[in-house]
Amino acid sequence: AHSAHTIVIVGAGQAGGWAAQTLRSEGFVGRVVLVGDEAHPPHERPPLSKAVLSGAAAPESTRLMKPEAFDALAVQWRPGVQVRRIDRAAKQVLLSDGTAQPYDKLILCTGGRARRLAVPGADQVPLHTLRTIEDAQALAPALRPGRSVVVVGGGWIGLEVAATARQQGAEVVVVETQSRLCERTVPAEVSAYLLALHRAQGVRVLLGAGVRGFARAADGADGADSRLEVLLADGSALACDTIVLGVGLVPNDELARAAGLACEGGVLVDAQCRTSDPDILAAGDVAVAPNPWAGRSLRLESWQNAQEQGMAAARSALGQAVDYQPLPWFWSDQYGMNLQIYGMPTPAHRVVQRGDPASGSFVLFYLAGDVVQAAVGANAARDLRFARRLIEQRKTVDAERLADLNTPMAKL
Ligand code: FAD
Fold first, then answer.
1. Cα(390)–Cα(172) distance, rounded to whole angstroms?
2. What residues does ligand 1 touch, defined as CB less than 6 Å away?
């Protein structure tokens, strides 16, 4: 019966690519249409602030699949085409090329776009953001010795850009409004570790520093070499050659909202990835899903979620029983340091430390009672794999042994 069906995927990013691949690996023989407004086939974004930005890896290396494997999926890929509207009554989407594409099931994988700042001068000076391959290619030449970069925003993208810029020899200042780095996603002790890491690498980090606006420096000549200024709330100004905004993501949920689907800072879905219209599913950065580890619904902006929720949405679209409740996992690479986070650490947890941050490798466990709920580690991938199992199995642990480097994690 399925062969007569058409499943349309909106957005050919990481979640959309995995959804397409999963439809085929689950045996779907109907029509798969993958509509993506980018020119590129489905690819992963993490290297765009790391190896692709530094030039160590080519943009093509980020592709989800080899061209042959992508061809073998026999999806109708529509690069450079945007979905403009969802007509739920007629069950079709209207495309930027003027055509209409009918669907039986629709999967929204539209991701998000870099947030801009609405401050004076923001539309008068060149401001970089980092979401796409083109963004990385535009920024890369500015990261070199003798050049100065101000990164606005001390979250993950901001810090990774700062690290790559520094490693390329540029002078770097990070400006963060909050009183600590990555305030939204990690507890204070992890923020302190990241701050020390960046300062040790010669990055100037300004905390509690609001941005009032942007300007061209008075003495700057026009053209590529003109100096720019970041105007801070305290009245001071930072002169630099390049400004990068890393101030968060705006979910691309406009299509869904215009179609009357329930949205709240993203497209609301259930554990089966279904929106408020059972024939429309959503996955990836755009989806707001219930998460038992967080105790609420939230968007997960992560590689893991883009892949696993994209796969789950595809299986759900095929009528399979799906119960997507992932233990959140996120990583970041900065200066060769690998940081990983499992679960959702909060200030309410009891913190147990294993290893000394000064040694370069450590894990922080976040406990409720004697049960590990979350873990954050630097250069400790092996211990973190065990930590993940402890969290998922909700096992009680002895905090003293957890903190003891002489007790192998495998024993816990
Ligand atoms: P996307 O990959 O953004 O794909 C959405 C696609 O939909 C885009 O191509 C968009 O153009 C297209 N689209 C939108 N609207 C329409 C429309 N109407 N019609 C057609 N097409 C449309 N995560 C980690 O866990 N670890 C990391 O180290 C890490 N590093 C990152 C570094 C960078 C620079 C960035 C940007 C992200 C990073 N992430 C990282 C996050 C991770 O890459 C994202 O969570 C993931 O890409 C989300 O996938 P997605 O498919 O939901 O969205």
1. 39
2. 10-16, 35-38, 45-46, 48-49, 82-83, 109-111, 130-131, 157, 252, 255, 284-285, 301-304, 306, 330-332
